[in-house]
Amino acid sequence: MIYYEVRRHFDLSAQLTVRAIAKVADTYKITKKNQHIFKLHGAATYDERCLSWKTQNKQEVSILTIAGRKSIPFVCGEHQRNMLACRLGQADLIYRDGMFFLHQTCEVEIPDTNDPEDWLGIDLGICNISTDSDGQVYAGGELNGLRNRHAKLRARLQGKGTKSAKRLLKKRRRKESRFANHTNHCIAKSIVKKAKDTGRGIAMEDLTDIRDRITVRKRQRRRHSSWAFRDLRNKIEYKAALAGVKIAIVDPRNTSRTCPKCGTIDKRNRPNQETFSCVSCGFSGHADTIAAGNIARRAAVDQPYGSV
Questions:
Q1: DSSP H or E run through 275
Q2: CATH match for 119-307 among 3.30.420, 3.40.1130, 3.90.350, 1.10.1740
């Protein structure tokens, strides 16, 4: 309906016209209630007709622009360079923080996963982002110190309310997002490597809608709601799939209140955040480690919610 009109009005090439129309049409597939407004530096989608990778003798990408086709060098790691041989479908050109990024989908083979004989339980928490059933804590006190520092700086800027303060807040938001993303990558990589090296599967709690199901004290609300636990779980799942490690998702109820020795379930078994002490048999230990152990045993004995 509008192909020739768009070409004539904007003086675009045939394939760029097709991609522009497709981008608008895709957004209206989501919702048609409002007129959509596109950002000046919004992402642009390129298919194989208007973008090609040159990785044989050089590291360049040939991309079609309104000023003709341009060959532009790109930077990536050796692992990502090798994955380009398995690229699939379209690429997205994104402008962020003064730089251009190309997001390319790649298809990789996922190895088969066998049923493990044992499980590595992972407990996700507020004070310690994650703790495994072997007692290893991932990102504990040091990370919380950085998160508190970020929160204080953000509160100070929000209190000023000036134009420069808002600009710094936007910059800090991106910085904190990169920090959380990097931390989750490191945690997920360490957990998957440990499970693979020991021949175990990974057992995690089903924390869907956890923020709606539990209440915390007022001073804990920020810490409870500010970390991307779903993002961490997603990273663990896809890294485990690439490594051939099986994932089990179990029922989270009472994993932090159950005694692993006598099986007693009591709220008093956990007198504080860090300590577990059974009111029946007296067994005690680190609360997060015991909870992770209960998760591992639940994956081995009970029927898990699901597995990957």
A1: strand 275-277
A2: 3.30.420
d(CA 305, CA 295): 12
Integer-rounded Cα Rg, in Å, for the chain is: 25
- What are the structure tokens assigned to 204, written together? 């995690």
Query: Parallel, antiparallel, or unpaired for β 201-205 and 247-250?
Result: parallel
How far is the CA of 134 from the CAs of 84, 191, 194, 195, in angstroms?
37, 11, 10, 11
Distance, in Å, from the CA atom of 86 to the CA atom of 88, rounded to the nearest integer, reads 6
Q: Where are the chain's structural domains?
A: 3-106, 119-307
Contact 290, 281 (CB under 8 A): no
**Mean pLDDT, 10 residues at a time, the chain of 308 residues:** 92 92 92 90 90 87 91 90 87 90 89 88 84 85 68 83 86 82 90 94 82 58 64 92 92 89 91 89 91 92 58
**How much is the pLDDT for 161?**
82
Instruction: Show Cβ contacts of residue 70 under 8 Å, excluding neighbours closer than 6 positions.
Output: 62, 63
Q: What confidence score (pLDDT) does residue 251 get?
A: 87
> DSSP 3-state helix, strand, coil percentages of the chain (rounded to 5)?
45, 20, 35
**Residue 263 and residue 280: Cα distance in Å, rounded?**
9
Q: Which of 291, 209, 172, 303 is closest to 248 using CA atoms?
A: 303
